[in-house]
Write a structure and sequence with these properties.
Residues 1-27 form the signal peptide. The chain has 610 residues and is of the alpha+beta class. It is built from 18 helices and 28 strands.
Length: 610
Amino acid sequence: MRFSCISLFITHSLLYLPMLLCAVAIGQEQDLPASTTPLSAQQTILLPDADYDLMLVGGGLATCSSMSKKSCSDQTQFSKLAKTSNAYLIHPTTVQLFSGAELFTAERASLQQQLVTLFNNLTEVQGKLLTESQLIEQWRSFQATEVLPSSGEELWQQLSDRELNAVLDFLEVPTLSADGKYRLTEQVDLAETTDFESAELYRQFVQLATKKAQAKGRQQAKVLVVTASSRDPFAAVDFYLDAFRQAGAAAQWLPLTAALQHAITDKNCVALPQYLANIHGSYRREQIYADLFNLKQQLCKQGSSAIVAMIADADGIFFNGGDQSLTYQALRHNDGSASAELLAILEAVKQKRLLVGGTSAGTAVMSGSQFFTINTPSHAVPMISNGDSYHALQYGAKAAIAPWPGCRKEQRCPDDMSERQLTYTATGGLGLFPLGILDTHFAERGRQARLLVLQQASQTKLAFGIDEATALLVDLSMQAEGIVQLKASGAAEVYISELLPESSPAQLLANTYSMSAGDTVIWQQGNITLIPTEDKTKLVNSAEPLQSKSPLFSRDYYRSLSHSLCLSNFNAATVSEPPYLIRLSKVDSCYQSADSKLSAKQRLRIITEQ
């Protein structure tokens, strides 16, 4: 085993926090000096070359496929058996199925019957196969009549997301080849994907999993794909299988979902369609994806031991995006205890036999300190499940089940919560990433404040935000000794928020670290050391104008301000967004690569004006 010599410099700093009595525009102001103790320790340790256990992607992998050609080059071509869209049919059979299903609450049953009337009156498209966009166009353009006083647009606007998905499920029909013999499948073309770095992340996952395979004496990685985060866990199966096969893996679908876990536990595999409906809000999948559903039902009958055997034989397992709470239910029982499948994954990770990856929700679900001892027991690492930055700042964080999208329209949001309420599972998610809270789609959705609010509420020292088409690689080999190696990969940045002791609900305060591709972070006993990649140079005498957009925690505006601060000769930027005063300050020098990727340590303070 090769070792590399890394010097770790451990410093401790305190920041003087004055009360700011008025809003200050962004300007060339000197930040109040940080009172920093002298270098307290310098320790040289030998770390082995990283052997990564986790690859956590922030989502947003723009990949060329027959269902998403906007990510394809102009010359991309797919076979005649490629699925290009879902298929829908307005026909007495499908409309009758929808009419008889108990999908709407009693208070909204009249809305369901109005939709039945609308579909029966779409005479021009009766019996014709429609794409989703064609169906929606016909639906929303329907004009009110004496028979149906509401227009199609009015009915459309009244539906919650849950109700709309149910309607579409009942009108959907299988997509078949011209001779009806084959189910069309979504096809991927990594080679023709215009977003090069998105495609490379699939290849990197397979490369890392291949190292696990080679240690076992085989040359090709066996990768399991888990689509448990999806409302419809069948829809993305073909996509992921094709993507990982093109990346070089022997890929197989592992049909592990919350529905399957409940069916196995209750020994009721016949009721899988009901579990899918009740837990996922997914209907008639046994008809739309008959082949995949049969695989799922067969595995259900074989039980957990068959799933555990598949995990034990795998070199990589990858969890898709969607809703992390669904993946949580797939791998934990109702009382929160770990399933046999989760314990099998944990054991394989500890033995360095398995690479675990995820994207979006498949990343967020990994947080938690249930299985590792590197965090104090009194501070469990929570799993974030919902919310945005401004709702978090206004309403705080709640340890509660996340409200489903559209609950406001149905007037069924729990405990009068907003649909955007910041919620979390206090005990954590799957517990495979013990260092801190994980968040995704990070800079693109301005999630810096929601992460900091949750850190303060749960007193979690560290939190990690991963941008889209970006990955955080994690080596847990030395976690028992209190050391973890982390590395950034991909297009954008990994953001680390370090809650400072002076932080309070009225004055949120954190040191922040921005990593980009090639940068390494060493976590040692709770301390963070950022090591920029060798091709980055320190920024000095930069004089670009300091720019900011408002609201700061929207889109990628915060990341833009952070970059602008690095490239300017200002020490700090203060933004007033009543009732909040937001201050971003330089702590250390920024570093920049030839392709303009940055590394930085800064300080974020959010003051709530009294």
